[in-house]
Amino acid sequence: MRKSLQKFAEKCPFSATSVKTSVPRRFSEIPGPLELPIIGNIGNFKYAVRSDSKTIEGYNHHLEEMYHKYGKIVKENLGFGRKHVIHLFDPADAQIVLAADGKTPFIVPLQETTQKYREMKGMNPGLGNLNGPEWYRLRSSIQHAMMRPQSVQTMFFYFLFILRYLPFSQIVSEELVKHVAKEQVRFGHVNMQKVAGRWSLESAGQILFEKSLGSLGDRSEWADGLIELNKKIFQLSAKMRLGFPLFRLFSTPSWKKMVELEDRFYAEVDRLMDDALDKLTVKDSDSQNMRFASYLINQKELNRRDVKVILLSMFSDGLSTTAPMLIYNLYNIAAHPDAQHKIQKEIKEDPTSTKLPFLRSCIKETFRMFPIGTEVSRITQKDLILSGFHVPSGTAVDINTNILMRNEVLFSDSPHEFKPQRWLEKSKDVHPFTFLPFGFGPRMCAGRRFAEQDLLTSLAKLCANFDIHHRGEPITQIYETLLLPRGNCEFEFRKL
Ligand code: HEM
Fold first, then answer.
1. What is the rounded distance in angstroms from the CA atom of residue 310 to the CA atom of residue 134?
2. Transmembrane region positions (predicted)?
């Protein structure tokens, strides 16, 4: 967690306890679309299929439209007993919500279907689906595994993280360069939809299973199958989230399909986890030399089931996020030759450096322009006053980071343009809760360090070896639980 931001949040003059304002308006007065009995607002998506913003795939456009129509706080009801969700489009409200998080923030699971599936199978729901003390126990062990030892200062933690995990990122990035070169020769272009997935699977293998999975080598077909399975789960999950949730009442064809997909996915991942854990249990070894999974399996407080829950959560969350981010970054780099040359120059000047401030600012700008998620969600644990309205404890709130990060008012300097320079200039008074690609606080993305390091290392290696060009129609985003690339993901990599 960014300490400075945390302090900023704690000192927040608007936090619920310190708010001194006129009487807040009632919850029922929060603006939003007209609700129908039982189905609430869910019909918005199901029937109105003519414009992009009214389809499930255009959910992000729907959010944008609601912001323009109703303002910075909007109430929506997903129907069928799911109560209201409050959409927030103001960083000051985001700050109030996150400042009130406490030690164990509560969230709404990203995929209700995955939570239901795991419960049905008697599995632990996993990190992103848990709340309360069980979440805290598992989450704490991840922090220890990533940032041990505990007794040193924060900056030193980060240094230790790099020292321990950077070599594995580098191995994967070198394999990626070889794989890309081969694909380029074979097909005359590289389909990054496939290659980025193989890359993120290979990286997960190094950290979570502590071995090469061969995804960028002789097992690329196997990797493609697993990635495709995961993609289908995300696609179907989005439809079930925003469609009529009849699967809650009985076993619908969609639910049966979901169970079949999840069964196949878990059978594969279970095999990977069992193989890894059988090999990684060691006696009397120095925990300082252990990688992520072997550290976990050798902790007395964690049993094998706990470790599997953690690995599974990290695996499934990581697989679907870093791969699209690699594609978005390559797209921005290819579409902006000036930026590409600047990155290449920066690397040439100091080939072993991991600082690379300009490349880092390009990655940051890509997070801003192509956020992978539509929101950071929380269930409030206190009564709060948001945009002057009373929001009771126990309400689901979505901080719509994807809108915040491209907002014309908040980013007055060409918010729809790729301008990495903006991150190198002195802050132009952008509210710190405007840019939250990894969320915030104790619940912030558990894989953030891995993701950032993998992106930086691999993009640096690709830019150092190739001139990168994008082919065909521009890449945009489509909502499939996450905001995934839509458009042509074929790139040309010309050897430098
Ligand atoms: C660029 C890639 C990624 C982005 C943008 C991203 C973003 C996020 C966000 C926004 C959250 C919710 C945070 C909050 O509620 O405050 C999250 C949670 C999570 N992420 Fe990531 N993530 C990425 C990659 C990864 C990777 C590589 C892993 C695993 C290796 C991972 C594992 C997780 C887990 C386990 C959670 C749930 C944490 C919890 O509830 O305690 N993520 N991520």
1. 12
2. none
The amino acid occupying position 168 is: F
Name the DSSP letter for residue 209: I
Query: Token digits for 403?
Result: 């809108």
Residue 438: CB partners within 8 Å, gap ≥ 6? 444, 445, 448, 451
Structure tokens at 318: 């990581």
Q: Cβ–Cβ contacts within 10 Å for residue 126, how many?
A: 22
Q: What is the mean pLDDT of residues 285-290?
A: 60
Q: Is 304 helix (H, G, I), strand (E, B) or coil?
A: helix
Closest ligand 1 atom to 204 CA: 30
**What are the DSSP E strand ranges found in 64-182?**
73-77, 84-88
CA distance 157 to 165: 12
The answer to whether residues 112 and 126 touch, using CB atoms and an 8 Å cutoff, is: no
CATH 1.10.630.10 for domain 3-495, yes or no, is yes
Which tokens belong to 149?
Answer: 């030892």
Please check the confidence at residue 285 and state whether its pLDDT lies above 60. Answer: no
pLDDT of 146 over the 90 cut: no
Q: Letter for the amino acid at 405?
A: M
User: Residue 445 C-alpha to ligand 1 middle, in angstroms?
Assistant: 3
Residue 398 confidence (pLDDT):
97
Q: What is the DSSP string of 267-286?
A: HHHHHHHHHHHHHH--SS--
* Nearest-atom index, ligand 1, CA of 126: 35
Asked whether residue 163 carries a pLDDT value surpassing 70, the answer given is no
421-433 burial, b if ≥16 CB within 10 A, otherwise e?
Answer: ebbeeeeeebebb
CA distance 145 to 14: 35
- Short-list 14, 31, 76, CA closest to 375: 76
State the CB neighbour count (10 A cutoff) for residue 132: 9
Q: Where are the domains of the chain?
A: 3-495
**What sign for the dihedral angle of Cα 330, 485, 258, 142?**
positive
Query: Which residue of 445, 450, 482 sits with most ligand 1 atoms within 8 Å of its CB, as the best mutation to test the pocket?
Result: 445
Using CA atoms, how far apart are residues 496 and 494, in angstroms rounded to an integer?
A: 6
**Interval between CA 373 and ligand 1 midpoint (Å):** 10
* Ligand 1 atom with least separation from CA of 452: 1
Quick: pLDDT tens for 262-272.
Answer: 999 999 999 99
CA-wise closest residue to 112 among 225, 262, 320: 262
> What angle, 0 to 180 degrees and rounded to 10, lies between the N-to-C axes of helices 220-242 and 192-204?
100
Binding residue numbers for heme: 445
Q: Report pTM.
A: 0.91
Report how far residue 114's alpha carbon sits from residue 292's, in angstroms, rounded to the nearest whole number: 24
